[in-house]
Amino acid sequence: MHVSGFQGIKVRFAVIEGSREWTEPTRPATRSAVVSILVEDVEAEARRRLRSCRLQEWRTREFITGRPMPDDVRHYALQVEFAAQAISRLSPIPEDFDSDVYWPRMLDL
Question: Is 66 helix (H, G, I), strand (E, B) or coil?
Fold first, then answer.
């Protein structure tokens, strides 16, 4: 494609399909067809992350004993719920939504 640039100089542009920025890591193609990610997938990932910190056990302990769950557990749960809501509102939801980049880091709970 030729386009007239500044001061009448012709500039040639080429469109390269499927190219990536050199700083972007390549991600192996796991899906051959384009599959849309559902909000339910994001919610399932959030539940998985909350199970990993044993949130239900902390809630049960709090209910039975009356002692509040540790602040860092409560804060982590709020962050996961917020991240799930934010990711679910993206259009489209990224294929790598389950990457740690999108989610809060779990401290040693």
Answer: coil
User: CA-CA distance, 1 to 11, in Å (whole number)?
Assistant: 8
CA distance 81 to 34: 27
Q: How far apart are CA 68 and CA 63, in angstroms?
A: 8
Q: Is this model's pTM higher than 0.70 or not? A: no
Residues ≥6 apart with Cβ < 8 Å to 77: 50, 53, 55
Q: Beta partners for 3?
A: 11
97 in Cβ contact with 42 (< 8 Å) = yes
Token reading at 36: 């849309």
Could you give the CA distance from residue 51 to residue 46 in angstroms, rounded to a whole number?
A: 9
What is the per-residue pLDDT across 21-57, written as a single tens digit (0 to 9) for each? 555 555 555 554 567 899 999 999 999 999 999 999 9
